[in-house]
Amino acid sequence: MIGPEGRGVPTIIEMVMMTRFDCIVGSASLMRQALAQALHHCMQREISGRRLAEHALMRNVLADLALESEAALLLAMRIARRLDEAAHDARARQFVRIATAVGKYWVCKRAPAHVNEAAECLGGAGYVEESILPRLYREAPVNSTWEGSGNVQCVDVLRALAREPAALEAFLAELAPAAALDRRLAAYVARLQDDLAQADEREHRARELVGRMALALQAALLLEAGHGALADAFCATRLAGRGMVYGELPAGLDCATIVERARPQPA
């Protein structure tokens, strides 16, 4: 026995929070490396007398990839901070109870498509084995299955919603400061709360609901980070139900600033 009788599942959940966090970090890292490869290529390759990154359509794709990568990293780092605090902070412990499963579901699910789009930025060169991108693409799917598939994460969130209401309260409290800064996030969180309250529909809609929880948290973190171009682009797309295909950022967003922020800097 490694814990009280009848408390096996809670004991396991405490352990897998760390390994699930590892999956989140791994997927965020794969996304960043794939983005770095795409940016490097597009900053060097010239088409029609201009670098590929200077073409509006490619800049849109690169900015969207950068947006996804930074949002994934911020989510991973916020969970890391709360995991450190969980030993002595009940609210942090309640937050990570639900946020780790939310983040593991969303970031690990988004990584394969992100790496695939980054490889496409290189054309055929991104597919052949001389590039690092095929290896990244082979590695990307494992984290969405390892330590619990997507459905397992969603069921775990549902379990927490039903049995540990304080976990949802802690999650919503994490969103509140940023929601006060942006009416789009405030409205999104209000709708999310209403839908989460519909217990009879939760299982059928679990993936949708958990995905929306992840997007709300990522939007909040980008707003808190204070980088206006990224936060504005994220709220204008992800919170509006766009972003299934990379490169669909609407006109008027500052794509150039987002790309420049993501560009690898020389050591």
Quick gist of this model?
The chain is mainly alpha-helical and 267 residues long. The chain has 11 helices and 2 strands.
Describe what this molecule looks like in 3D:
- This protein is mainly alpha-helical.
- It has one domain (8-262): Butyryl-CoA Dehydrogenase, subunit A, domain 3 (Up-down Bundle), CATH 1.20.140.10.
- It is 72% helix and 1% strand.
- The chain has 11 helices and 2 strands.
- Strands 1-2 form a two-stranded antiparallel ribbon.
- A hairpin with a 2-residue loop joins β1 and β2 (50-51).
- The N and C termini lie far apart (51 Å).
**Silhouette:** globular
- Please write the CATH class name: Mainly Alpha
Widest β-sheet, arrangement of strands: 1-2
CATH superfamily: Butyryl-CoA Dehydrogenase, subunit A, domain 3
Number of helices: 11
Secondary-structure blueprint:
Layout: H1 8-44, E1 46-47, E2 50-51, H2 56-85, H3 90-121, H4 133-139, H5 142-145, H6 150-163, H7 165-179, H8 183-196, H9 206-225, H10 228-237, H11 255-262
Helix pairs in contact: 1-2, 1-3, 2-3, 2-9, 2-11, 3-4, 3-6, 3-7, 3-9, 6-7, 7-8, 7-9, 8-9, 9-10
Keywords:
single chain, 267 residues, mainly alpha, Butyryl-CoA Dehydrogenase, subunit A, domain 3, two-stranded antiparallel sheet, 2 strands, 1% strand
